[in-house]
Amino acid sequence: MLTVLAVLLFVGASLGLVAWITFQSERERLKDDHYEHCAAQAGMMGAAAQELRQPLNAIVGLVSALQTTLRKAALDHDGVTEKLDTSLRELNEALLRTLEVFDLSQEADEFDFEPVDVRTELKALIRKRNKALLKAQSTVKIVAGYIPEIWVETELEQFQSCVGVMLDQALAQTKEGTVRVSFGAEEQADGMVRLAIAVKDNGRGMDQRRARTYFSPARYEDNPELRGAPAAMLSLNLAARSAQRLGGSMIAKSAVGVGTTFVFTVKARSCEALEDEPFNRVSPSSNDETPKFEELSVLLVDDNEINLFVLQEFIMPLGFGRVVTADGGQKAIDRASAEPFDLILMDLAMPEVDGLAAAARIRKGGPSESAPIIAVSGMPMLADDPQLREAGIDGFVPKPINNGDLLAAILKALPDIVRHAEERAETDHEVSAHPLRLAAG
Questions:
Q1: Pick from 301, 308, 315: which is nearest to 361 by CA?
Q2: Which of 18, 137, 386, 436 has CA atoms 20 to 30 A from the CA of 52?
């Protein structure tokens, strides 16, 4: 009897062990299938985002060119250019927010933390919007209470985005009067600092249940205030997501007849203040040998004809003496190997020879080997991506191209641009009396 019982127990244990092993194997298989599905979905969204950036970049550039043409020809009847500009900005903002959703879905938004002067950044954001309000002859104004000097390590672009979204939404709700900004900072025991930025409008407000739906895309119909404000819902949701990834949160508090207050909190590590860089470190020297801007040359590289046209439209007003185009990576290598350029703007996603390979080849030698190379691409990358550094690329501007982003990248590279031009001038004293403004490659 005991033998039979022992056999039954052994068989039962064996069956249980087999079932447990089978369950664990199936669990791991399902987990692998899930990861594989998520990876495929993220890849698809990444590809979709890049595909959207290309035509959007063309639309931005072509509309900008049309505006310039209409103004020069004095054909701006009934404020056509202003309407174009408004529609373009709204389309650009809405699509960019949509692309950010794609990027977030594949975790392409790794943050690069750096020392940030909170007071300076907040004042700059407020000043920028007050200037825009003044230009639009609005009676609304943003006012702020006392903001102490405080430095923390955080991701500057996401910090600016979170505060900017709150300011823009508060301004959208305020028809007259003031939008008030409050700031608070609390030191934590672990060397961290808890920051709180509140933005209050003087709109009509709403009940708190509706205020919570600001951060719920599925409940868009509960917020009629957001209709007619392109990308407002996406902006608020992305800002809340960014706040969470920065270690904080974003909420909205509201009451009927009182207005709405947006509160952005973030926990960051305190850091030492950075010394301001002397102006002469980022400016050309003032001696007579310094090349003039019109003596500098730039190479634009993209395999898409419309994108090349867009780049030309953005770059020509800067006054470069010579602007040359190359419609592909190999042609860029050939051009840069045959003649010197002081700056190269390089697309990355090109057939046959991509931008990374072309940049690496240019760095191996030739008259343009030390010229700054700035990547201009729809690929979701960070400016300090290892792939860019390994290829010898000095900067990154995402598509659709924002004029301010492109200008900032060029200004950052300006000392190296001038240095390259000075070195080139030492070996080549031939100066053209009539520099070529544009050449096709």
A1: 301
A2: 386
- DSSP per-residue codes, 180-248: EEEEEEEE-TTSEEEEEEEEE--S----HHHHHGGG-GGGGGG-GGGTTSTTHHHHHHHHHHHHHHTT-
pLDDT tens-digit map of 88-110: 666 766 666 666 655 555 554 45
Burial tier of 70 (Cβ tally within 10 Å: 0-12, 13-18, 19+): middle
Tell me: pLDDT of 368 over 60. yes
Please list the helix, strand and coil fractions of the chain in percent, rounded to the nearest 5, in that order.
Answer: 55, 15, 30
Contact present, 237 and 215 (Cβ < 8 Å): yes
In angstroms, the CA 193 to CA 148 distance is: 13
CA pair distance 159, 161, nearest whole angstrom: 5
Give the model confidence (pLDDT) of 48-72 as tens digits.
Answer: 666 666 677 777 677 767 766 766 6
pLDDT higher for 16 or 358?
358
Nearest to 378 by CA among 356, 400, 394: 400
Q: What is the CA radius of gyration of the chain?
A: 28
Instruction: Provide the terminal-to-terminal Cα distance of the chain, rounded to the nearest Å.
Output: 94
User: What does the alpha-carbon distance between residue 241 and residue 248 come to, in Å, rounded to a whole number?
Assistant: 9
Contacts 24+ apart (CB under 8 A), 41-47: 41/105, 42/105, 42/106, 42/107, 43/106, 45/102, 45/105, 45/106, 46/102, 46/103, 46/106, 46/108, 46/380
- The backbone torsions φ and ψ at residue 302, rounded to the nearest 5 degrees and listed phi first, read -165, 140
- Give me the count of residues in the chain: 441
Q: For residue range 219-240, what is the model confidence (pLDDT) as tens digits?
A: 555 555 555 454 566 677 778 8
- Reduce the DSSP state of residue 350 to 3 states and report it: coil
CB count, 10 Å around CB of 1? 5
For position 151, what pLDDT does the model report?
Answer: 92
From 306, 192, 200, select the one nearest 263 (Cα to Cα).
200
